[in-house]
Specification:
Elements: E1 6-9, H1 19-32, H2 40-46, H3 51-58, H4 67-78, H5 89-98, E2 102-110, H6 111-120, E3 129-133, H7 142-151, E4 158-162, H8 165-174, E5 177-181, H9 188-193, E6 197-199, H10 205-210, H11 223-254
Parallel strand pairs: 1-2, 1-4, 2-3, 4-5, 5-6
Helix pairs in contact: 1-4, 7-8
Length: 260
């Protein structure tokens, strides 16, 4: 029996390894406006939801460029950078699918962009549904997650898997468990501060979700066991030979052929 019946996956930074694309895209906008650009460490410390607040903290002036304009600009730049799936993503998706775990993507990205990404990597078969936003403004996914569960109840125990503080917040709001993976959009320290379990690799999720499977114990042969078993076998063969000859002699001497 599995530990969890369903998994709600985050997409960006969790299944899709797009941190490089996100960093390069925001830096294009920062540089264009003569604002300080980010390195990967600073990015992981500053990124948060709603993204509008994160942009304000970076120094963007919404009186000069509206957040909507900046969000559209980000995605134009974002789409110029190729991003792969995170290591072991497909292997884990397949393993959970084959063990009857229902899987969903709950993302703060725009729904058509999410569908394109899932289709591109050929992983759509693993998901029961894709849940995302209708725009590119990345306001967060708590409300869309709540609405989905109200209209599409998911039976059993659910696990949220993400890479940000926001994913832990969403899990709490939905009343489900949460696991966070490092090397995503937030630093390890920020993830640990949420109180959620933090993992280094997606492959760790297999045991977390499915539990430990019973494995038949193998009785490995040792020299001592081999020696003992050889002795025992010789003894059995010796006794069988004695009994056979005794029976044969008895038949031969008494002509009790019916005993054959």
């Amino acid at each position: 029996m599995n530990n969890y019946d369903a998994v709600f996956w985050d997409w960006n930074g969790t299944l899709l390894d797009d941190i490089d694309a996100c960093l390069k895209s925001v830096n294009v906008s920062l540089s264009k406006r003569s604002l300080p650009v980010l390195d990967s460490v600073t990015y992981a410390e500053k990124f948060r939801f709603p993204v509008k607040d994160y942009y304000r903290e970076l120094g963007f002036d919404f009186s000069k460029d509206s957040y909507e304009v900046l969000a559209d600009e980000f995605f134009v730049n974002y789409l110029t950078v190729e991003s792969p799936l995170r290591k072991d993503a497909k292997k884990v998706l397949e393993k959970l699918f084959l063990n009857s775990v229902k899987q969903y993507i709950l993302s703060a990205s725009e729904i058509s962009l999410l569908k394109q990404g899932v289709q591109k990597f050929g992983i759509g078969v693993y998901f029961t549904d894709l849940i995302a936003l209708s725009d590119f403004h990345a306001a967060g996914k708590t409300e869309v997650g709540k609405r989905y569960l109200e209209t599409h109840p998911v039976k059993g125990k659910i696990l949220m898997v993400g890479d940000t503080e926001h994913d832990a917040e969403v899990a709490r709001a939905l009343g489900i468990d949460c696991v966070l993976i490092e090397s995503g959009n937030n630093s390890l320290q920020r993830l640990q501060a949420t109180g959620a379990k933090v993992i280094a690799s997606l492959s760790e999720l297999i045991e977390i979700v499915l539990g430990k499977k019973t494995v038949r114990k193998i009785d490995y042969m040792t020299p001592e066991k081999a020696e003992r078993r050889n002795f025992d076998l010789s003894e059995v063969n010796r006794k069988f030979a004695e009994n056979y000859h005794s029976f044969y002699n008895d038949v031969k001497n008494t002509n009790k052929t019916e005993d054959w």
